[in-house]
Design goal:
With 185 residues, the protein is mainly alpha-helical. It has a single domain, classed as Ferritin, CATH 1.20.1260. 74% of the residues lie in helices and 0% in strands. The chain has five helices and no strands. Helix 2 runs antiparallel to helix 3 and helix 3 runs antiparallel to helix 5. The longest helix is centred in the last third of the chain and has 32 residues. The two termini are 26 Å apart.
């Protein structure tokens, strides 16, 4: 979706306000009053670092192959992929913010961008689909890991919002691939 509907903007604003309110309330509760959380912060940091590397790869993949999309079909899809790339960048920033708030330096490590041969819109979309499906799996696992944690509830909410966007990316790419493959027949 190129533009967000008013209801989507309102929903996003509502979620941000809820997270802000939750964090304010949580900050007022003495830490010793919170239920015991068996998740080690080092495990949460490692999980966030892994998600961050995956987000770097998704963003970098969009950026690296954007130059290949100058044909008619590419011109139609390019603005949508640019929107995906911007969302991946927003995910990077969210993950970096949590890592620094937990006292960790966000990783600078990157996964290698895969070489797509032959370079084609279908090849690019198929590779991107693999990365987006991987992200859906990784975020689902991270959310499950944080399930029930009061200490990491705000993080879990943000990861759930990112997961929804990653699922939308999968849906978009599957739709574009089916349209593209239909045009090739």
């Amino acid at each position: 979706m190129l533009f967000k509907s008013f209801s989507q903007i309102t929903e996003d604003a509502r979620k941000k306000e809820l997270i802000k309110l939750y964090n304010e309330v949580l900050a007022e509760i003495p830490e010793e009053s919170l239920p015991e959380d068996d998740r080690k912060q080092s495990d949460v940091i490692a999980m966030l670092q892994k998600l961050l590397r995956s987000e770097y790869l998704q963003r970098d993949l969009y950026e690296a192959y954007a130059y290949c999309l100058f044909n008619v079909d590419g011109e139609v899809i390019r603005p949508h992929l640019k929107e995906h790339m911007e969302e991946e960048q927003a995910h990077v920033e969210i993950l970096q913010r949590y890592l620094t708030s937990y006292g960790a330096l966000p990783t600078l490590e990157r996964f290698k961008i895969p070489l797509i041969k032959p370079v084609s819109i279908v090849g690019i979309l198929k590779e991107d689909l693999i990365k987006e499906k991987d992200a859906v799996k990784e975020y689902s696992e991270a959310i499950a890991f944080l399930e029930g944690s009061v200490k990491y509830a705000a993080l879990r909410l943000d990861l759930e919002n990112i997961l929804v966007q990653e699922q939308e990316h999968v849906h978009d790419i599957e739709r574009w691939l089916s349209e593209e493959e239909m045009d090739l027949k």
